[in-house]
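User: I'm writing a tutorial on reading structure tokens. Could you give me a worked example: one chain, its sequence, then its tokens, then a sentence or two explaining what the tokens reveal?
Assistant: Sure. Here is the example chain.
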Amino acid sequence: LVLQVHPSVAAKTAPELIALAKAQPGGLTMSSPGAGTTNHLLAEMLQRVTGAQWLTVHYKGNAPATNDLLSGQVQFNFDQVSVAQGFIKEGRTRALAVAAPKRVQWLPDVPTLEEQGIRGVDGQTFTGLLAPAGTPPAVVARLSDAVKQALADPAVVARYVATGSEARWMSPQDFAAYLQKEESTWLPIIKALNIKAE
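And here are its predicted structure tokens:
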């Protein structure tokens, strides 16, 4: 995900945005596509790590949240690179940082939060293929192999890259471990803030 601001916001870096938020607690507004989304949880994590405070405005989906950022009704948000990159390149928003372990190929000039001294704030969205509990292991293995073959096709990889996404296969065991790691990262925040899915 990328941390982006409306061009009217004075901040040119993530630390400058945090400083603005600290100078006027609750004065900045951040758009969220909904309570409990990765976009929302990442912003909550950033508040916890930095001690900054802002008003989070939840929308019913990403389209209205993005529209209000573009119009300047809210000052910033976290959004998927695949959604934000066009607006950033057109100058309709300004990217401050990516929430990733390293810079992303679609926005190579945008530093990570960690590069800017903000550690421990990392989040991605992902798409996974799941089967019902009790699906025979042979069926799971066959589905996994089919996905692995599809994601090895250069044409498929190129289509993902063109949308600002990365095509990456994981074994069922690795994906289960990834999901457990995600749960251990986000569940404490969800419980602490009593976030309910709507």
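What the tokens reveal: The helical segments are 14-23, 38-50, 62-71, 81-90, 137-151, 154-162, 172-193. Residues 172-193 form the longest helix (22 residues).
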